Amino acid sequence: METAEEHKVHVHPQLRSITASKLGCDPADFSAAGKDVETWYCVVVAGRPGFQLDQLRSTMRIVQDELVSKDIDSHKFAAATAHKDTHLSLSWVDGEMQKKFCYYCLPSEPVHETCGRRQNQEQDVARIFMIRFRRDPSHQKPVVKRINTWWRLDDEEQDLASKIIAPCSDANEISEVLLWISNSVRNK
């Protein structure tokens, strides 16, 4: 039983409409760290189920292990601190089943390699992206009935936080992913 509990710690939750708030990945809500946090981050692995997605999720598990390591490199300290303070969460998205969200976050041309149904013999390409949320401290949380299962993608003005989405250009090296996360957090 202890091994199963240890394994749970290393599995990133799937970012879904029902988990977004708990992870702090919902612009209509607050950070997982609390109501006083003005800037927070969600790093998301997206792709169709298969080898590529599994590989990138495995990479992110190693990234998480590095973030909680006591021997963290000073270049990656900002990411480790954000993760420890729950200002940074790690999750994944099934690009096939959650295609609307995936298309929304990755609106560039090669998005069809990551999101939606597989077409013909298309190669699957899993990708990492970061969503940075920034909340205006004077903006109070509105009382809103959720119409959409995802963020109200068509009704931005009711969101509590603004968001910027940035893709990771080099997700092959763990050290590069860690450096990218840390630089993004440091340059908020």
Automatic annotation (TrEMBL):
InterPro entries in UniProt: DnaJ_C16_autophagy_reg
Q: Which organism is it from?
A: Selaginella moellendorffii (Spikemoss)
> In its UniProt entry, what is this protein called?
Uncharacterized protein
Q: What superkingdom does the record give?
A: Eukaryota
